[in-house]
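Dear colleagues,

As part of the handover before I leave the project, I'm documenting each prediction I ran so the next person doesn't have to rerun anything. This entry is a single chain, and its sequence is reproduced below.
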Amino acid sequence: MVCAWGVWINSPGKIESDDFKDILPGWNSLVDVPVAALPRVYDLDSSFPRYGARSSLPVTSNWPGDYSFKVSFENQEKNNKTKHINWTYSETCNKLYVMKDASCPVNFSTNRAMHHGCTVRVMAVYSAPEHFAQPVTRCLNHSRSEIEKEVLEAEHLVRSESVAFYHTDSESGRHSVVVPFENPPAGQEFSTYIFKFLCFSSCSGGPNRRLLTLIFTLELGDIVLGRHSLELKICANPRRDREIAEKGVQPKPSTSNMVPTKKFKAHEEIYTVNPGPSTKKAKTESKKKKLRIEVENEECYLFLMKMKHLYKLYRGVSDLDNIPSNLKAMICLRFMQKSSSSNNIFGITEACVIPWLTIQTIIFENGPK
């Protein structure tokens, strides 16, 4: 029996993994696979570059490896035209927006068939350096019910609906979920797994509004074969938060090639257009309050009504600024002749109007403009 890369290879051509006996009970540790048919990473060729095992601090950089490990998401918005969606992935921001407790399908793919002993580890970490060393856990409000039931993965934020092993690192306390990597079915380029996230990014006592990064690693025992990371936000409205984030990262037009020009104030007459009657003025006039004058005797009341009638006549004539004064007088006389038969209920006659018009004519001709 020879040990190569943490995997025990028996002489008859069978592979036995001691690592997965302990962490994944029930998995078949004996696989009838010829040694010659295995990918290069399992060969005993010493010239093959040997990649290191998992580090104490998780690495967040993308590294597809020799097997082009890739994580992808379907475009849910094409399949669901409603405003409400459970999750959405932004390629612009490289960020997954997902609702709490929502089933989110994640696709894993490689450029060749992998051995059944390979696994995919999913781990959530804090993005900011000041919080990076802290493990990501659920808030007490959402995990209390499972803690009371003594569920082992009660504090794990990331859950899998597939066969999975929930691991807690004894030194760092980090939580991760490990699922077996399954080769894609015939006619398909990827394998799909369903994951859930059981806390909001804003939960106090949990993520507490701190930025999250989700790391996917393709592993064989302690050997990392590929890595893919993306940002994560667990929210109530994934579509809204994605649209807001993408608007914030849209590139602004470059001003480096623009020639600076001198600013000047254009002449008003070039851009002035006759707007017609001002709507603002009309609104203010319509909002004027009606005033009332209270009198104690009928004689004063009749006098004021006569003055009101004369004021209306004066306003009608004064608006005709471009009409000669003698023509204004003729218009007033004509108006008084028509109104004397029906509307002249206050005794207004031509004898009292003509002197008044004469005075107004003098004011129009010689008065201040």
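The longest strand covers residues 223-234. The CA atoms of residues 321 and 346 lie 28 Å apart.

All the best with the project,
I.
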